[in-house]
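Renewal narrative, Specific Aim 1. Our central claim is that a sequence can be written position by position from structural information alone. The example that follows is taken directly from our test logs and has not been curated for this report. It begins with the structure tokens describing the chain, in the order in which they were read.
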């Protein structure tokens, strides 16, 4: 992968993070200051723009990889998806038993952690 593609990906990702954070702060400010407004639901979706930009940047980055690195990321995501599914099913049964360990806000960090673990496993396999 060329240096230009990496630099462009970093810039696009930083722009996505800035857009996300600006949207998040605006969203929080608006909802706290206008609780009865009809615009609360549309404004609550504003941070999604930054997430969509980050997703687009990540997809372009993966498309720029060679086949081996694409395969490693595919295996990492397959591991992360499967492990997350297992965790969610197990957690669903715990909730039926009345045990609540965490809320939905931790699902994305768990998925990222599982993806990193899967990527390390793939890197070890193809070293």
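The sequence written for that structure reads:
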């Amino acid at each position: 992968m060329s240096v230009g593609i990496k630099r462009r990906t970093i810039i696009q990702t930083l722009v996505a993070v800035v857009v996300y954070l600006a949207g998040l702060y605006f969203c929080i400010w608006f909802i706290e200051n206008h609780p009865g407004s009809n615009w609360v639901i549309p404004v609550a979706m504003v941070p999604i723009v930054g997430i969509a930009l980050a997703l687009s940047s990540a997809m372009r980055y993966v498309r720029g990889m060679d086949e081996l690195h694409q395969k490693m990321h595919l295996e990492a995501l397959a591991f992360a998806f499967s492990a997350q599914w297992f965790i969610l099913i197990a957690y669903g049964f715990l909730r039926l038993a009345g045990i609540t360990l965490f809320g939905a806000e931790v699902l994305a960090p768990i998925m990222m952690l599982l993806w990193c673990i899967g990527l390390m496993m793939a890197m070890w396999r193809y070293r």
